[in-house]
Amino acid sequence: MKDKDEEFLVVRDLYAGYGDAKVLHGVSLTVARGEVCAILGPNGAGKTTLLRALCGMVKGRGVIRLDGADLVGRSPDTVARLGVAHVPEGRGTFMPLTVEENLRLGAFTRRDRKAVEEDLERVYGYFPVLKQRLKQAAGSLSGGEQQMVALGRALMLRPRVLLLDEPSLGLAPLVTRELFGIVQAINEQERTTVVVVEQNAHLALGIARHAHVLETGRIVLSGTAADIRADEQVAQSYLGYRV
Length: 243
What we know:
Layout: E1 9-18, E2 21-31, E3 36-40, H1 47-54, E4 60-66, E5 69-70, H2 76-81, E6 84-87, H3 99-105, H4 113-126, H5 128-132, H6 143-155, E7 161-165, H7 173-190, E8 193-197, H8 201-207, E9 210-215, E10 218-224, H9 225-230, H10 232-239
């Protein structure tokens, strides 16, 4: 019998799509409490759809359980209240709103005002530049700063699971490395479970404990991040080199 923490997030035989277009075909995976799990695969493999199904944005058929609670069929706001925060591809930042307003939106499910103020300071600790931009419209920030806002907004939920969809998209390599370092620090310091979809497999596997490779809506390979990094086929297909 597996330890409860080893089956913190459980996906079994998950089918999902958009109308008549089926994208996921029986996806199954398990994520342990407090680990980073990387989802790799080519464009169109279903990675984004998987994250959307996990947060309730896309309806699925099968099993999705978070710490024993069934998530299938629940609305996105209900899933968020259960502790799932989603940072979508393209960041989902509210451009006309200020940095502070964007961050406070992340705490929409919460009523503990004092703790919300404390968490704002916690977010500024991870992203000091945001404290300097508090009253600035989010749309006027650089791409890297907007991604920081998106991550900070997700942290304001006090999530148990953080879903990241292509966090490096459109960012310079130096900024990307900085963001991944912060994600790793959040995971280690707060034991937040992270599921990250990322084209930059090097970075994703560098902070992940386990990884899964998706192709055409099916998981074709699963294992430790170290084993998948060393796999010749994965190296050629996703890492751009031979082992």
